[in-house]
Amino acid sequence: MKVAVLGANGQLGSDVCATFLRNGDEVIGLTHSDIELTSISSVEAAFASHQPDFIVNTVAMHHVEKCEADPIAAFTINAIGARNVAKWAKQAGATVAYVSTDYVFDGKKDSPYTEADVAIPLNAYGITKLAGEHFIAASATKHFVLRVSAIYGLQPCRAKGGLNFVELMLKLSRERDKLRVVDDEFVTPTPTMQVAEQLVALSRSSRYGLYHATAEGSCSWYEFASEIFRATGTKVCLEKASPGEFPAKVARPKYSVLENSALKTAQLNVFTDWRAGLENYLNARGHAGTTA
Predict the structure, then answer these.
(1) Distances from the Cα of 238 to the Cαs of 78, 149, 198, 292, in angstroms?
(2) In what order do the strands lie in the sheet with 2-6?
(3) What pLDDT is stored for residue 144 in this prediction?
(4) Which of 55, 131, 180, 185 could form a disulfide with 79 if both were Cys (CB 3.0 to 4.6 A apart)?
């Protein structure tokens, strides 16, 4: 299969490229210098020369504060860009996979969100990604939409200063004796490698549609930090931050845990518990620590 990966040099895109290659696919890695998603002519020119069978769109404007400050730019990239890709895919008979987010939900539910729950975003980022989902579903016959949560990978995330949450916690633990982390926001930390493996599994199927695609289980950011330090043997005083101690500049869901209902129904779910995912990540980056 010929697979085009958009955002190939990003945190998720780099793992997607490597994982499809390991599975014997021909991979075309495309970056911003190769394709401009907001330009339909650029999209058509890039794909015309490669003619991919399967397209993975990991491109996004996902810095929440910047999206809020410039919602038009966010909509152009996250929604119009997704539409341009989907339109070409439909015309060419190709399949497109669009990576979306847990931020399409408002976080007011007290149990994991399924694909059947109504999406009510709180901010411009979530709104524009949800718009992208609708454009994909309406524009491409053969499509997969994957909602992910709290992803982290070996490739630096440029939009977050090059540090994912794991690396940020380890960096801060070397600089400070005491750390305070919020304990009232709940997510499912998910390694990008597992998202990539899930994309490969879906690419071998024709069960098109919307999927929640996260590691199993959930935790608060404080619990995640605690497990990072335990697994790496890091000695630092970790405390729970008081509610409102670190006020967000933009509204975010307090609870955005997703349940992979559709993947499990289709018997395609490849995800492990989030602790096992952390262990694999730490082993990959050279740590000897293990998790329970």
Answers:
(1) 36, 23, 33, 19
(2) 26-30, 2-6, 54-57, 95-101, 143-148, 209-212
(3) 97
(4) 131
| 87 residue type, one letter | K
pLDDT digits (tens, 9 = 90+) for 208-246: 999 999 999 999 999 999 999 999 999 989 998 887 777
User: What six digits make up the tokens of 16?
Assistant: 């997607």
Question: 289: left (phi > 0), else alpha (psi -120 to 50), else beta?
Answer: beta
DSSP 266: T
Domain boundaries 2-160+189-216+256-272, corresponding CATH code: 3.40.50.720
- First-to-final CA distance of the chain: 37
Predicted confidence (pLDDT) at residue 101 exceeds the cutoff of 80:
yes
What's the rounded Cα separation, in Å, for the pair 213 and 209? 12
CA–CA separation, 171 and 91 (whole Å): 47
- Average pLDDT for 265-275: 95
In terms of Cα–Cα distance, which of 209, 203, 198 is closest to 54? 203
CA distance 113 to 107: 9
Residues whose CB falls within 8 Å of the CB of residue 261, separated by 6 or more in sequence, listed in order: 114, 115, 116, 212
Task: Tell me which residue has tokens 């980022």.
Answer: 125
Using only C-alpha atoms, the chain has a radius of gyration, in whole angstroms, of 19
Element containing residue 48 per DSSP (H, E): helix 40-50
Sequence spans of domains, the chain: 2-160+189-216+256-272
- Which residue is associated with the tokens 């404080």? 222
Over residues 33-85, the pLDDT tens digits come to 899 899 999 999 999 889 999 999 999 988 899 999 999 999 999 999 999 99
Phi-psi category of residue 161: left, alpha or beta, with phi > 0 → left and psi -120 to 50 → alpha: left
Angle of CA points 4, 8, 14, to nearest 5°: 115
